[in-house]
# Entry
Amino acid sequence: MKFGVNTWVWVSPLTTDEIERLAPLVAEIGFDWFEVPIEGTEDIDYARAAAILRDHGLATSVCAAMGPDRDLIHPESDIRDNGVAYLKHCINAVATLGGTNLVGPLYSSVGRVWQMTAEDRAKDTDLLVKQLRGLAEYAAEHGVVLCVEPLNRFETSFINLASQAIEVVDRVDHPACKIMLDTFHMNIEEQSLGDAIRATGPRLAHLHSCENDRGAPGSGHVPWDDVAAALRAINYDGPVVIESFTDKVKSIARAAAIWRPLAASQDALAQDGLRFLKNLLT
# Structure
């Protein structure tokens, strides 16, 4: 099992210079995984970033930032097309960085919520399955796996539950389309985090670990023993990545709703969270 951290803990947007600054810190803290969120498509020199991460022995993944103009199921076709183009950019970035997983809510803009009938949901699901199948084929050509993430009800009205992600991924039916779960969102939406993880089973390719207030894992009331038992039950051996945020995050600031410090320092959040996760899972 690999333990990682998303750089939103410290900075937004991530740039090549910030990767050069953060990579030695992340390695020194004890992480072996460095997650790269892509906000602007011109922010990072991926080849240079790959060399920096290799120099520090850090594996990597990419986290998509689905903003208002990036949405695979938006009513406006140009926004859908831009969402596809952005995710293809991210797929290319993962390949250049030397990673495998592209993770996030790979369906709609974070923070977009809307009322829908059962017929509307079925139509949007059909569209999403078609979009993801095409992207999964493109991802497979580049050695990349899409990891679709359910979000809580305040950040999306579309995929909130592991069961909804399972439905979509099973319909896509492609080995390059799997699921990411996030303990913060699950703690809001799932009746049982353990049951959701067990139901996801071999579809689970990535895990974001975060406390109920988005603080360091182990500092709140997420039922971590339940999470650990379920991960062991499905023989999960993928990355476990701490995802929290600085209040400087711009692209999803309103949806992430980070209005106050969540730890004594961002370094402490990462250090304390890693210590807890290693004790829990190894």
In short: The radius of gyration is 17 Å. The CA atoms of residues 69 and 79 lie 5 Å apart. The beta strands are 2-6, 33-38, 59-64, 101-104, 145-148, 177-182, 204-209, 239-242. The chain has one domain: 2-281.
